[in-house]
Amino acid sequence: MNTIFKKVVIAVTVIGVLFMSILLFHIITAKPAVYENANLQVSRIDFKSNIDSLQAKQICADLRTIKGLTSDSIIVKRNVVVYFHNNKITNSEKVYNELMSKRPYEAERFILPANMANKEVCPVDQNSVSYKLSKSINQFFN
Fold first, then answer.
1. H/E stretch holding 20
2. Which of 39, 64, 113, 38 is CA-nearest to residue 81?
3. What whole-number distance in Å separates Cα of residue 103 and Cα of residue 105?
């Protein structure tokens, strides 16, 4: 009975040491992720009538042909189309003009009101303990 207990303890210790060494190796050799999110911008086009599924597919197909849009980030709901684009390549006005040149859509480009342009949009309280803790943990692993 005593030898079985020793073998179990040794096996658990060996597995723990292996796990910790793999984790340590990963932390040392992993490079932080580099995101191009600083160049991504969200824009919106408001359509005058509701968009059915056939029109939604056509709008998505037309938007995917425009250079600078991330093709997997086009959202069509009722009468609004939201899309993400790289603001180093294009802007919302160019996207809107190109989309309108493809078909005679009845739509207008959404322009953010001036009083909302400078508002902070992050919903996280950056002074909270949980935010600071998660930020420090993220910095440790990156």
1. helix 2-29
2. 64
3. 6
